[in-house]
């Protein structure tokens, strides 16, 4: 057998495995895991809006610490970390073989899946590390990491420009996320024809509210990064917890944070809708 045909057969088997039932189950488990994270972050943000949050911070580490305190918490953390690792593997398969849908093989789509793969590798690692006893990835980790990374980059040659570019990129990403949610772009990723009418209506509410809230948080976090670059002050950069807390410093007081928190809970529920109805 010629080497090109062997290579082609190997690629074909890998592609079929990436689109098979096991890969589908892994992807759906990943959406369940993502939903858990956002539900907990939203609940923590809602608690912070009207109290001190019970010592927890509304970021990924705070969500992980909250889950760890539940009955069988360590087992739940391992399951969550494995589910998010599954999400990472599914995103990798999309980067290698293309997303579902007619335009899924476009280079831009595959590059975006590659970026998501790296993100979920980091998230799953941080959850599994906490489950294994590394509490450095716990509550408040996002704020510490954001400030530490920003401080290091600002010390590089042209570091101020790099941080500014990153901040602008995150702002654009936030606007893009919110805009796509408002335009209901998620429709093309879901098996809408198989969903009951009320489920479709609920999905629209969750998808729009969740996407707008998530996009808003991204855009505001990007604004803080841009401010840190312009002022050459790494302390101005904020992780998710401090970004969310900043909403209480507006003229709306805690109510704006409460609204964002409800939106993040909606996005968590929307992730569970994806776990059931998304085309993968």
TrEMBL record:
Keyword Signal: no
Listed InterPro entries: DUF1206
TM ranges: 25-50, 75-93, 114-133, 161-183, 204-232, 252-273
Residue ranges of domain DUF1206 in the record: 29-97, 115-183, 209-278
Cited Pfam families: DUF1206
Record key words, sorted: Membrane, Transmembrane, Transmembrane helix
Protein name, entry field: DUF1206 domain-containing protein
């Amino acid at each position: 057998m010629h080497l090109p045909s062997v290579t082609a057969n190997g690629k074909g088997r890998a592609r079929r495995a990436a689109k098979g039932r096991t890969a589908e189950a892994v992807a759906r488990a990943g959406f369940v895991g993502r939903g858990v994270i956002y539900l907990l972050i939203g609940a923590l943000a809602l608690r912070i809006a009207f109290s001190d949050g019970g010592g927890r911070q509304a970021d990924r580490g705070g969500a992980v610490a909250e889950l760890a305190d539940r009955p069988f918490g360590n087992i739940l953390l391992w399951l969550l970390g494995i589910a998010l690792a599954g999400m990472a593997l599914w995103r990798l398969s999309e980067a290698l073989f293309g997303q579902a849908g007619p335009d899924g093989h476009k280079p831009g789509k595959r590059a975006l899946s590659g970026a998501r793969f790296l993100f979920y590798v980091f998230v799953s690692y941080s959850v599994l590390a906490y489950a294994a006893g590394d509490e450095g990835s716990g509550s408040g980790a996002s704020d510490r990491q954001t400030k530490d990374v920003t401080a290091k980059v600002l010390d590089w040659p042209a570091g101020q420009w790099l941080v500014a570019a990153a901040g602008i990129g995150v702002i654009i990403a936030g606007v893009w996320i919110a805009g796509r949610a408002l335009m209901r772009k998620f429709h093309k990723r879901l098996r809408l024809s198989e969903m009951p009418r009320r489920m479709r209506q609920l999905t629209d509410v969750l998808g729009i509210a969740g996407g707008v809230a998530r996009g808003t948080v991204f855009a505001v976090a990007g604004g803080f990064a841009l401010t840190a670059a312009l002022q050459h002050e790494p302390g101005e950069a904020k992780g998710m917890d401090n970004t969310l807390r900043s909403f209480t410093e507006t003229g709306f007081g805690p109510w704006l944070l409460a609204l964002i928190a409800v939106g993040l809970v909606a996005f968590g529920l929307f992730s569970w809708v994806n776990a059931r109805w998304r085309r993968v």
